[in-house]
Design brief:
CATH architecture: 3-Layer(aba) Sandwich
Strand content: 5-15%
Shape: globular
Number of helices: 7
CATH class: Alpha Beta
Order of helices and strands: EHHEHHEHHEHE
Distance between the termini: 17 Å
Number of domains: 1
Strand order of the largest sheet: 1-4-5
Number of strands: 5
CATH topology: Rossmann fold
CATH superfamily: 5'-nuclease
Largest sheet: 3 strands, parallel
Helix content: 55-70%
Length: 125
Amino acid sequence: MIFDTDIFIWVQRGNIKAAEIMEASDKKYLSIQTYMELLQGAKNKIQHKYVKDFLSSFAFEVLPFTENIGHRAAIYVEEYALSSGIRAGDALIAATAVECNRTLVSSNKKHFTIINELKFQEFNP
């Protein structure tokens, strides 16, 4: 499974359901976009270290950008930005999930369910 940024935020807030869904996944992935969003949300270097340690401790694999991911994300923005409000970051995360043939877990149903080829699992906090 690929976890959207919001799932990590739920875990940081102490949401047990979010932690359980992460623990239940044999293979844990996140897009490089999510990784950057998590680091960007940190207030200092201590929080940066916390993010890196958390990902390492729970064996998350950061999936890099590829040309195909970038191309697919651009198509998603072109097709869906006006109708659903998908932003570039979410388009990159969705494109990563599709290109890597993984299920995306997120509570942000509105932006993702319009993408037919995306395997999506909604998280309800």
